[in-house]
Amino acid sequence: MTIRATAHARYDLWYHLVWATKYRKKVFKDYYVQERVKYIIQAIASQYDMHLGVIECTPDHIHMSLSAPPRIAPSRAVQILKSVSTKVLFKEMKWLRSQYWGGEVWSQGYFIRSVGPGLTLEQIERYVLEQSEEL
Hints:
Helix content is 39%, strand content 21%. By secondary structure, the chain is an alpha+beta fold. The chain has a single domain (8-133), classed as Alpha-Beta Plaits, CATH 3.30.70.
């Protein structure tokens, strides 16, 4: 693991994040769409000085490992990724409006787990990658 740095902190914080599409609709069935969603999330993370380890998009949810600087609370990291990606997805994929007329792609909830002595980053990343193999 790499220790990252900001102007005032050194850190090695990793999280396992999962959230689903609203109503668990399987809107991301197409391989191209899944890859585009992953790219969008990656781009947003880099804009906010967050680092994605691995990311997998399934038809109705997304898994990832994420490192964020200490100034960004885990809940804020999720809020940023979900809200900004929703705006970009609606802009790029006009067909989503017919599925989600209310303006939300993602469900309200999410799962988060921090990496620590009982759970390593490698275990999380292996689990995330296995999610795409189950399809």
